[in-house]
Amino acid sequence: MAKEPMFDTAQLAHAELYTPKLEKSVEFFTKLLGMTVVHQEGTSVYLRAYEDSYIYSLILTENDEPGLAHVSWRATSENALYRRVEAIEKTGLGKGWKEESYGHGRAYQFRTPNGHNMEIFWDVERYQAPAGQESVLLNRPQRRPLSGVPVRRIDHINLLTADVEANKDFMVDNLGFNVREGLIDDEGIYHATWLSVSPSVHEIALMEDELGNGNRLHHLAFWYGLPENLNDLSDLCVEYGVPIEAGPLKHGVSQALCMYILEPGGNRIELFGDSGYLIFEPDWEPRKWTGDLKEQAIIWYGGKLPVTYFRYGTPVINDPIEDANIYFNTPENLLCDFKFSEFGKPYGVDKVTK
Predict the structure, then answer these.
(1) Distance CA 162, CA 340 (A)
(2) What would the pLDDT profile of 289-339 be if each residue is shown by its tens digit?
(3) Residues 6+ apart with CB under 8 A from 145
C-alpha cells in the first residue's frame, strides 16, 4: 500500500546566506536583482523580492566565509508545525525552539543528516508596502522596482550533500517532501534529486558533493517568470563584470530556463526565466534519469556546464582541479560602490552599522 501523503510543510519561506563582503552583496541583490532592503539587525540585512508575500525572503549575514546559514520552511498550520517537530525530534537532529525572529513566530530549528541548518515555523508577518510603494495590482504586494532586472520571488535552494539518499529520505519522511526527479546510477541509487511540497518541480534539490564535504550550498534561486529577463540580465552582467558561470540554458530536469551567476560574497545564484512544468498528479512517479539520458537531464539545450558547476560550492574548498578554483576569490565587479545610507527611505533602511 502506498504511503499516505503528508501536507504539513507548505513552502520555502526564506534563506540566510553568509557573505564576507556584506556591503557588496547587498549592492548586488538591490542594484542588479532589484531586491529591497526592509530591515537591518546587527550584521544581518533582510531583503525581499517584489512579489514575495512575506516581509523578506533573503537574509545576508556578514561572516568570514560564504555559505548557507539556514533555510526556513513554513508549515501549513500550527498543528502541522507540532507534528513535524515531533517527527524531527525522533531523528535526533532537532536543535530546539527559537522564540523570537524578525518577521515570523517561534521556529523549531534542526539540521539535515549532513548538517545543513533548517527551521520550520507557522506564524508569519505579511508585507505591507510603505506609502508610495503600493502596487495598483491588488495581488502584487509591492510596486515593481525600477532598479536592475527585478526578481519576483524566491524559488528554491540546492544543497550539496555527501549522501543524497539519506538527506532525501529525511526530507520525505519528516517534512513530507515528494521526490519529483532524480539522477540515479545502475543500482538505482540517487546522486541528485529534486523535491517539492507544491506543484512546482522543486523547492529543494540535493546534489552529491564531488569534493566530499557534504555540508555546502550549491545555489539559491529566484524567479522571474519571463525568459527575456535572462537576456537583459546577461547583458548587464557583461557590462558590469558580474561573473556568469553558465547560461542562459534549459535543463531537462524541471524544464527550467535559467542561468547561474556569482554574487560578490562567493555564493552561486540561479535566476529562473521559466520554472518549467507543474505537477498536479497526487500519485506522481519520480522521473529517473539514467545512463546517456543524464546529459540531457542536465542540459536540454544551451552551452555546456563548466567544471565549477559540479564542484564549486560554499563554503569554498580549494579544489585539486585547478580550473575549478576560478571563483575561489570572487572577482570584483563594476557595480558602483555605495554606502547603505545612499539608499534612503525607499529601501527601508537609512544606514547599516557594523
Answers:
(1) 39
(2) 998 888 899 999 998 899 999 999 999 999 999 989 999 888 788 786 544
(3) 34, 35, 36, 50
- The Cα 270–Cα 245 span in angstroms is 10
DSSP-assigned states of every residue in 78-144 = HHHHHHHHHHHHHHT-EEEEE--BTTB--EEEEE-TT--EEEEE--BPBP-PPTT---SSTT-SSPP
- Taken in order 265, 267, 268, 271, is the CA torsion positive or negative? negative
Cell triple for 248: 542562459
Measured CA to CA, the distance from residue 340 to residue 338 in angstroms comes to 6
pTM (two decimals): 0.93
Given a cut of 60, whether residue 343 has pLDDT beyond it is no
3-state SS class at 309: helix
Q: What percent of the chain has pLDDT over 70?
A: 94
Kindly state the cell numbers that stand for 133. Answer: 510603494
